[in-house]
Amino acid sequence: xxxxxxxxxxxxxxxxxTLAYADSIPTSDPVIKTGGAAGGGxxxxxxxxxxxxxxxxxxxxxxxxxxxxxxxSPCVLLQSGISTTSPAxxxxxxxTVKGSGLAITSLTFDALGVPFNSTDQCGFLSGxxxxxxGVDPLPGxxxxxxxxxxxxxxxxxxxxxxxxxxxxxxxFSATAGTVPEPSTLVxxxxxxxxxxxGRRLRVRQSS
Length: 207
Prior knowledge:
The termini are far apart. With 207 residues, the protein is an alpha+beta fold. The protein has one domain. The chain contains 2 helices and 13 strands, in the order αβββββββββββββα. Strands 3, 4, 5, 7, 8, 10, 11 and 13 form an 8-stranded antiparallel β-sheet that branches. It is globular.
């Protein structure tokens, strides 16, 4: 009788441990998706859609308290010691270098502690600024990397994120690949050209 009681108690403890562990891990394979402004193609701001969180640096973090955002919790943008909550996981590209706006040409999300699995996914919502994405193990192991490419988020352009099936209280390390805005590059080249022409004129005048 004593042996049966011990066996029953062991089974109950094992079941409790399994349930507790199951509550701390995702119920499905993790997925990250990118989308256009507020999940659509054009920005629609107002009472129904809050203003986007401004992204000002190329290296930042995204925190999700539920692991599924914006479905069951907002996204929190962490950058340069600043924390900004975005209920709709809605963001704006405000990255500049020396006063010039940059376009985002890629987004990479590192999910440390989430083991790489071939069933992990990335995808696109309506109006996504990217057309290609990939999921790979982090160099050296220990996590999974989600990368979005073949597209562009212009300076002051909006985009959204959709996170599904990640652990609770999860933080992604993220990196934005950037290039100068085409208009900024044209202005830069025009300025260089004007300087060269001015220099040639001065040389001719002095000779």
